[in-house]
Amino acid sequence: MQPAHSHSEGNTPILPGVPPVDHVAIAVRDTADALRLYVDVLGMSAEPAEIVPSENLRVTFLNGPNTRLEILEPLPGDSAVARFLDKRGEGLHHVCFVVSNIVDTLGALSEAGYQLVDQQPRPGRHGEILAFVHPKSTNGVMIELYERRSAAQWGAAGGSANGGTDESSGSADRGPATGDGG
Fold first, then answer.
1. Among residues 58, 63, 32, which one has the least CA distance to residue 46?
2. Which domains, from first to last, does the chain contain?
């Protein structure tokens, strides 16, 4: 189901400015196989993999010129990414946009009819806050919203002041790799 917001000539965008993309996440069954393409062939550099026990997930960030990929590999057992792979196969999991005010952005998206996975932002693992928009309302692509904040800012905003060390977040750098994609 798509939101009721219509796209037409002269229509004012819901959000001011175009938010930059932080990363694109790809769900894979085997990180080593993905690294053969992205590192060995395309020349991207890989950050050390991080295991996220709360999401039963291995996360590896890859960097290239103007490019950042997040490789998501489920560990044995149940996880949101394993269910995503079972349902949709390997491929695009989500696109992460950096926003200046995640609370306002979530409000604007909800008001425009987009289905939110997270009604309120949650802390990531490194001081940022994040939230996801469900792919059912975004043309089949899960959207992650990401706002850089210090732990003090997050605590002052009414969230957890633990500095983003909440183990409930599933992406090593940016937050949860939740949802099975539809």
1. 63
2. 21-156 (3.10.180.10)
Is there a contact between 67 and 23 (Cβ–Cβ < 8 Å)? no
Asked if the model's pLDDT at residue 96 lies above 60, the reply is yes
User: What beta strand segments (E) does 7-108 contain?
Assistant: 21-27, 45-46, 50-52, 57-64, 67-74, 91-98
**Measured on CA atoms in the order 126, 24, 34, 54, is the torsion positive or negative?**
positive
CA–CA gap between residue 102 and residue 85 (Å, rounded): 28
The length of the chain, given as a count of residues: 182
The whole-model pTM stands at: 0.77
Residue 113 has φ and ψ, to the nearest 5°, of 100, 10
Q: String of b and e for 119-158 (b: at least 16 CB within 10 Å)?
A: eebbbbbebbbbbbbbbbbbeeebbbbbbebebeebeeee
Q: CB–CB of 58/73 below 8 Å?
A: yes
Model confidence pLDDT, tens digit, residues 43-88: 999 999 999 898 899 999 999 998 999 999 999 999 999 999 999 9
Under 8 Å between Cβ of 147 and 99: yes
Query: Strands 142-147 and 91-98: what pairing?
Result: parallel
